[in-house]
Design goal:
Strand order of the largest sheet: 1-2-3-5-4
Strand content: 25-35%
Helix content: under 10%
Length: about 100
Amino acid sequence: MFVAKVIGNIVCTHKDDNLKGLKLLIVQPVDKDLQDKGKPLVAIDTIGQSGEGELVYLAKSRESSLSLDREMVASDAGILGIIDYYNVTKRMEEK
């Protein structure tokens, strides 16, 4: 799993039948300090409630669509939840 910020959405007039009815969002992965990490990517909003500006956690590859009751959903990432609170405590060896 990884953390990302929702930075936009995608509207498609034509898409694979297994993606119909699912919201596609553009997410920017972030590091533990919530700084941008890597390139933005498209993710399926499996919970259907994520929106621009929210911090979310995602799964990649096959796990990205396991929460959907559909077979063979083509996706690279899937939003599994919205993060309400985020806290990172430094470990002793990092001080």
